[in-house]
Amino acid sequence: MITKDMKIGDICRRYPQVVPVLKRFGLDCLECQIADLEDLGHGAGVHKVDLDELLEELNRLIAE
């Protein structure tokens, strides 16, 4: 399960299938220099992304 407190870089390494979803939401995480330091909740806030919607879609994808 992906949570708002997880580091973006960790999410991308553990669940590479979610990278296209992150990009669609405007989080180009693999290119970001602070992906290993920034948690998903903070990144979503900076990019004005609906965190609940993002988490729902990410977790639905990894459950498939």
Description:
This protein has 64 residues and is an all-alpha fold. The chain has one domain (8-63). Helix content is 52%, strand content 0%. It has four helices and no strands. It has helices at 8-14, 19-24, 40-46, 51-63. The longest helix is centred in the last third of the chain and has 13 residues, at 51-63. It is globular and about 30 Å long. The model has no long low-confidence stretch (mean pLDDT 93).
What's the quick description here?
By secondary structure, this protein is an all-alpha fold. It is about 50% helix and about 0% strand. It is built from four helices and no strands.
List the helices and strands and how they pair.
Layout: H1 8-14, H2 19-24, H3 40-46, H4 51-63
What is the percent of helical residues?
40-55%
Helices and strands, in order, run as HHHH
- Residue stretches low in confidence (pLDDT < 50, at least 5 long) are none
Number of domains: 1
Radius of gyration using CA atoms only: 10 Å
